[in-house]
Amino acid sequence: MISQPELDNLAEKYETETFIDADPIRFPHMFESKKDIEIAGFISSLVAYGSRKVFIKKLEQLFTIAQNEPLNFILNFEDGILGDFNYRFGRTEDFNQIFYIMKTLYSNDGGLEKLFEYAYENVGTLRNLGFFKIVTDYFYSRVKSGTGQGFYFMIPNPENGGAMKRMNMFLRWMVRKPPVDFGIWDFIPSSELLIPLDVHVARVSRQMGLLKRNSNDFKAVIELTDNLKKYNPDDPVKYDFATFGYGVSEN
Question: pTM of the predicted model, to two decimals?
Fold first, then answer.
């Protein structure tokens, strides 16, 4: 099993401002206001799957469409703004539905911070899938019937037991402190965050001896996060940078 000094060294090496440019977190870093940052972060997390090179280009295209004004884009969203914008599973109508629901969220219900805060106040932990269900139910209860699979891929149902990788990544961005993350949400302590688990993180974590479970599901997220808590109970998700760095150094 990898030692704590090795993990800490990797995390320290890669949790720097140079990490930002090649990561989807670069997009919320374009903005200064809280709501612009959280909207840009949420949108970036939705599209952050598949080839990094490809989805970065797609996000560049999407923020150009939004004229680099995320809050204004959401508050004034209407049909036709996106043209034929799509990405893999996400068709234009899937994005339309997500952005219309976000328009309601920001016009009437306080925005993403209030939604996630409500979920945390009612459940008290991210380890219970009920936390994620409150968030996704907000979107599911407002989506039009007939929406494609891309909507449900980008806003996944936690009851399916998936890793909820992109939502955990978004929460890392919002909760942890700079230089890479933003630390603009203070209602969730860093100790409660869960590792954003994807195929790469799972593979590297097994090589490190930190994960035994074979499936890359929510149970694996809990197992890996619990093992990382043994090294740093206050901030286990800092080691997301270590798994990234280990993978880079091994390639």
Answer: 0.95
